[in-house]
Write a structure and sequence with these properties.
By secondary structure, the protein is α/β, with parallel strands linked by helices. Helices cover 49% and strands 13% of the residues. The protein has eleven helices and seven strands. The two termini are 31 Å apart.
Length: 256
């Protein structure tokens, strides 16, 4: 399909035509990974499988698998301190955004599971490295997505889902979640944190200006969530000039 016929191509005032970049966030157990899978499939049905890709953080960059292994699944004797994990998250993110930007400019829409909000939620809020995360973020040219979907769930639902997953011996589809290692208090804190995350972090001031932010009720069935997401994407596409995130400015420096 040519870019002219691809409904997910928008005009960036600095770059010209490029594809859109929706990102999905939420606490562990919110249904995020399934939502990403469903949204990606719908978008591929609209414009062809080659014109839409799914990705995720941490681990989606060219070096990301190595970073994810060190952070989430370290070998014996390789366990990292929390500050080291925080720094590696940003290393992966810089490389990942370079990969994402190249694909968007090639006309390939990207549906992404997690972004830097997860670093603030996990390494920051849960594990106490918010000052470090903020300090590193302030020195990097990290771009915000066009559309940010946040799946909100209540603590009772998330704890029930964790129990159901354990009972069925299921695992996280992308191996990116850490909820098996959390207690109920931490899971509850995550639920409340994500509900207002764009209002509690100084780093999200630019996010609110750049991105079309949508909170969805993660307790709803996945088909309902997808239908709601489609409506928001179509709204975005109808008036992209109101929402478009100018991802790359002419004076941007390569972060690599």
């Amino acid at each position: 399909m040519s870019p002219k016929n691809n409904k997910f191509i928008i005009h960036d005032p600095f770059l010209g035509d490029r594809a859109i970049w929706p990102v999905v966030e939420g606490p562990d157990g919110s249904g995020k990974s399934t939502f990403v899978k469903n949204l990606t499939a719908w978008m591929q049905d609209q414009v062809g499988i080659d014109n839409v890709q799914a990705t995720y953080e941490i681990g989606g960059s060219s070096i990301g698998q190595n970073v994810r292994q060190l952070i989430l699944h370290p070998k014996t004797g390789q366990t990292l301190s929390n500050p080291s994990k925080t720094l590696l998250c940003w290393v992966d993110r810089v490389e990942h955004q370079r990969d994402v930007r190249a694909l968007l400019l090639d006309g390939i829409a990207i549906v992404q599971d997690r972004t830097y909000l997860s670093t603030y939620a996990y390494q920051g809020m849960l594990y106490g490295d918010s000052p470090l995360a903020g300090a590193v973020h302030s020195q990097l040219n990290i771009k915000n997505p066009d559309i940010l979907f946040i799946l909100d769930v209540d603590p009772e639902t998330i704890i029930e889902r964790v129990g159901n997953r354990h009972a069925s011996n299921a695992v996280d589809p992308v191996g990116n979640d850490d909820m098996d290692n959390m207690n109920d208090r931490q899971l509850k804190d995550l639920c409340y944190y994500y509900r207002g995350i764009e209002h509690v972090l100084p780093a999200t001031t630019r996010l609110k200006a750049d991105s079309y932010i949508v909170h969805l009720d993660g307790r709803k069935p996945q088909d309902v969530l997808l239908a709601e997401a489609i409506k928001h994407i179509e709204k975005f596409l109808a008036t992209p000039e109101l929402w478009v995130n100018t991802m790359i400015h002419p004076d941007d420096k390569d972060n690599g």
